[in-house]
């Protein structure tokens, strides 16, 4: 079977769409889970704090590939027949939540203690302090590293090709086998990721610079 | 929930896991030494704006940081033979890790070099040191010390990322896990233990790097 | 034959004409104080003398080393011209002893034992023999500056440039540094200091150079110049410093 260059590009673009979709799902769900995790991580309950810490340590200290396998084979133990897509979305969400929570914790901790003390002295509860005083300030600092991390999420989706999710890398692998042109195909695959990631990297750098620019 | 966990068949293959873990550590060691070496050269080139190499390193850094490691690995292992460059599995794995870490450490170390106060360079110049001597004796160590935590994190990330090298049959830890679970059909137990082994390695390597940083870079004995 | 001669020195930063034809001649063993308002070009002048600032036109000669806009053997020049900075600029990752030993070892290829011996001697000169193995951040500002002086002396320079070396110090630490400089002057070291310490300049200096708008505006013996300034600008400056 003969592939024209257009056939190859068209197939890769389909794969790219799945990469994009998985990235979005993982980033959005990961952010939501990460926010909960953040609240737990900076809670005053030692048990909750410890659990969040352990969770973050686990996901930052193990390969994403192993996390994928654990979800894929772990859910199967419960008799659930998980598709590659489900496993990929769940694992990447868990992975993203751990990293985002840790990034955001750094931002929260960079808010001066006086802000906690001042809002506490106004009789705000801890949740109200976070909601009205701390998080709005931390958010400003958090934007740049959060956008920066989105690059890691997009790149992370490539690992899901290993459990058979047909995103960009997997599509590339199948095309490379069919066309015997791995140099061209993997080159194009790399270009595809670059097109997704580079604008994100640039924005992260721009945001970072703007934040540090004298007001 | 009738599933009965059984770790015995995995533990029976413990020596395979152990060998795989050692191989992963070996890859990481070589990748770290060569990757950081590239990082130092790249960082100086970028920080000093040595034309035209600074632009080349800039391109290299952006290309690597904005594409997934597994694609870089596949490109090296499956793609390069088209150019007549045929590498064994472990050579490809090491090369991919070196190139990957080289790009990240270029940026990390550059930040360290640029954080060294200008007065340090002036003091070195006033003592008649050349630019290179000033870099070697005055700039390098404080710059590395400053970014060592960031560099250490990146080294651990690269080690964990090397798990995908199993896909080109590099016989590291995740390859051993795949092999074991294909024999005993205890996938969950196998990957659980392997995951914990990676976690242990990450913790140990992080501690080791912190210790090395203290000894070699912080100067305090 | 003067030890150091500056002729028709010009320096531009872009369109900004910072030094507008400086002529200056300094004999061996002379202690020279350069004074002037900020922006008068005094620090720039000092920094051209060891090539930290390039020059746009003119000539600098130090003990046979020759420097102009086109060519300069900075390595040779800087071995003859030492410098001490306002901010000390000690190397934080090296001990006090290693700070002093570094340049003799790297630039002059001295052996370790030789460099160590030299460092001990230099540190004794500034009264810090007991700090050889301490790190700079364990020292007071005054002690750090004295180490910086020892570090410069270890290269046996012909001239020592001092760029506002007491300006970053707490008032109670100024004297320990000045007394080291006074001792150097007594031993015959050629010193060129940019300074705000007028009393010290008058007491120790052999020559006072008043910089104004990028030129040497007035030169003379400190006591005479202070007693009877020849120009209104210097009179103003002295009045402002004394009054302030």
TrEMBL record, chain B:
Record membrane topology: Multi-pass membrane protein
Keyword annotations: Amino-acid transport, Cell membrane, Membrane, Transmembrane, Transmembrane helix, Transport
InterPro entries associated with the record: AA_ABC_transptr_permease_3TM, ArtM/GltK/GlnP/TcyL/YhdX-like, MetI-like, MetI-like_sf
Signal peptide segment: none
Compartmental location: Cell inner membrane; Cell membrane
Family matches, as PROSITE patterns: ABC_TM1 (PS50928)
Keyword Aminoacyl-tRNA synthetase: no
Any coiled-coil regions, as ranges: none
Superkingdom, taxonomy of origin: Bacteria
Residue ranges of domain ABC transmembrane type-1 in the record: 21-209
Listed transmembrane segments: 20-44, 56-78, 191-212
One Pfam family, short name: BPD_transp_1
Family (UniProt): Belongs to the binding-protein-dependent transport system permease family. HisMQ subfamily.
Classification via PANTHER family: ABC TRANSPORTER PERMEASE PROTEIN, MEMBRANE COMPONENT OF AMINO ACID ABC TRANSPORTER
Protein name in the entry: Amino acid ABC transporter permease
Organism expressing this protein natively: Pseudomonas farsensis
